[in-house]
Fold these 3 entries.
Entry 1:
Amino acid sequence: MIPALIVPVLNGHNLLDEMLSSINYPIENVIVVDNGIKADWEYWNKNPYIENLFHLPMPSNMGVPVSWNLGIKALPFADYWLIVNNDIRFINNSLKEFDEQSNAKTLLLSNGSPRWCAFSIGSEIVESIGLFDEAIYPAYFEDTEYEWRCNQKGVLPLLSNIDIEHENSSTLKGGYEEKNSKTFPKNMMYLDNKKTNNDLTQGDWSLTIRKDNSWD
């Protein structure tokens, strides 16, 4: 059984429903971090493979790194966490393969496009590398930054052959392309500065960045 699945969602709750419906392997806890202020959303299918589903409606868009970290913090005793985009679908035995190949010591990337659309991260990886950098807001480069920190510390992500269907960039296509055109280069510059300074910390949430990069 997969101990925990974390999925943030901003828009495209219909795609979220499709992702949850594609689950065909037991998962103990699913956490939906709802950044789209959809307090009335309810998963209609009641997938029997999901033991517990927690819907966390946020009053504003928390962003990807904060959402990932929130899921990890909410379920601190999991050996590993499976983190996915809301617009992916599990196919064939992909979930079973994740469970078989994931453990406390691994960072395992899917064979989806991009690979970080679905990945598992072990508890010992988080203890060694830290959480995701919440100064990156609201999205893009959080995965690149984490992989860079891993590589700098000699921790190599495992590239799996686990196939995932992914409707790429569905959030942007839902009305956020213009906002992303402004925040994307800012997040890139932030990461470049970390690399220049060899800053291997997990970073800190910034009220200034949160406001300046707002997609609200």
Entry 2:
Amino acid sequence: MALEILTEKDNISSDCGTIIYKDNTGAYDVTTNPTGYGAPNATRASLYLKFFLTLKTTSGDEQITVPAYNANSVTQWSIPLTQDGYYEAYVFGTLVYAGGTTYALGSVIYHVGTNEFYKSLTAGNLGNAVTDVAFWAPVTEVDELKAAIAATQPNAYADVYEHIELCNSRVCKTKAYLKEENCECTPGASKYNKIRNLIDGADINGSIAAYARAQAIVEEIQGQCNCIDQD
């Protein structure tokens, strides 16, 4: 079996401000992990990984800034977050640029000297420096990497991990509960009950991969939380 990169959420900080994703591909084992790193599959040391994180809101995608990392050896990515929602983590792995290799249009490679990933702008791209803008362009968008995978580029691998993040929403629920402890509220109309029910709905939709619906619920939760912060 061929290598299959496996990336998952590892944890999120207690203040909901930093999320960690981890490379869980593991080492090759003919019985327990035939899709892991190592012969006969590609080794981790030979692959250079690029990580993208996208928040997929109802109004459009928002690409999250990923801090710089060592593409040749990274095993986890620690990324600052400011809000809950539907996140898509996309990891792309490919080999280092080789001057003697001919690259097809759209092929993506990594260059050690510049520590950047590049996309070939021409077919039959042979022996051209990655700094030559007539032949290469830095990779800045997830879709450019997905296109390379769709074209079955040799020695290119990818993984998509989707999830609903609700850490801030749960903090908001606690705030609502504490505020309502000391006031006279109608239980059925309390913000706490509404937020609690919305969180349950987002969790359920996330568990069945109905991510767009879950994101819409998260945005409703955020509206409720904004009201609480202003109270």
Entry 3:
Amino acid sequence: MSDYRANTALGGSDLRAMVLDWEKWLFERDLTLSGSLPEWMQRSPTPAMEFGTLVHRALLEPWFHECDVVMPYVKSFALKEGKQIKAEAEAQAKEQGSIVIRHEHGWALEHIKRNFKDMCLENALFEVTPECTEVECYGKVLDIPIKGKLDWLHGTTLIDLKTISDWKKRQEVLFSSCYHVQLAHYESLLPKRPESLAIVWVESVAPYRVEFQEIEDGVAQMGRIAKDKAMQKYRDYLDGEVVF
């Protein structure tokens, strides 16, 4: 576990969860901080989450992704051939300090990378370097420790990368998943508010479209208000002014 993940400061996912369901988030956080969260309640990465991680790695950390081992396609890893292919790929990945990727995912990522490149050219987004992607930040709000791993700081634009399977529901998901709240949390970690907030949508199924969406001022302000209310509610809870 990295130092970032082990740090108990409030992250962007916390702020989203606080706004979506305050009591559920607080119940699970209290159990986690006390070391009492049952193993069966601990979330395991879903296939969609794992693919999202691969997309982030391929687009925002290409210097790592380029050495990943993409396996040949096999129908089943339970059969002898599949087991052998997987074992050989894992051995190669271990030797070069990379990870193993299924053939299907590698094929999809090649399409996504090409569409991402076209999107960057169209929107004059060129900087993908270790200095401006996956930036870990820490701070305090209302004397509460906060943290965030910013996907992409492109000049004065703060960009969050999101995968989505239903391309038609991008705007709906923006609100239903509180991504505008998460962006507001991230911008509060910066010494100076960025001039613009944006989301890069990546389609996780064919044809793997990629789109740059700048967040409107009104939507960004809604996110800031919701974020501030959630932080104040947590501050009041810590001070004993909100009973759970």
